[in-house]
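Sequence, structure tokens passed on for absentees:
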Amino acid sequence: MKNSDIALSVSGLEVVLEGAQVLRNVTFKVPAGKTIGLAGHNGAGKTTTLRALMGVAQSRGEILLDGESIERLATAERARRGIGYAPEDRRLITALNVVENLRLPAEIRALSATEIERRLAAVRELLPELKALERRPAGLLSGGQQKMAALGRALMVGDRLLLLDEPFQGLAPVLARRYAEALHALRLQRPELAILITESNPALLAPLAAQVYTIERGEIVSPAQM
């Protein structure tokens, strides 16, 4: 595989929190146009890995986005480079309504009004259930609705790489199926997009991911074959 085909390359990623080493030499790649899974039990290091990739957690090691080093960039600058992030706890601004939450990262990225509307239209097409909720305060949404809104918000800026942390956690079976359908549709809508999904249950990743890495105690232990 050529380097030009790799959207995200992570090498020797390490994170120390409060004196404890949480990640150890985490190394993997996410090809452009592919969905890659990162599976592991709670506390294995999945969330910390994504937080490090976004610059939320301080880390050592190499992080390349389309061949460019980003490990010294602030979180906001990584978003400006085209990384969308949907954290496990959603992190919506509860006092803002849904459409305001969707628009906010694109406005921070200083996208034009025309481009913001174009991206909103794409999100509405992919997640039509959000359209009826757009004027509702995010704090009044159910947990599943918040997961959908967080995905939509990440898509507003994630035009190169999408990071999804435990998207199926806590979802009822019907909503989990709907979320999976949205990710399948996203692959058709944006075939060039690289996606990294973490999940405690590897079975949920199997229909979505071209490759699944397993992380245990902060280390990658078993990458599956493509």
User: Anything to note?
Assistant: The chain has seven helices and ten strands. The CA atoms of residues 84 and 154 lie 4 Å apart. The first helix runs from residue 46 to 54. The mean pLDDT is 93.
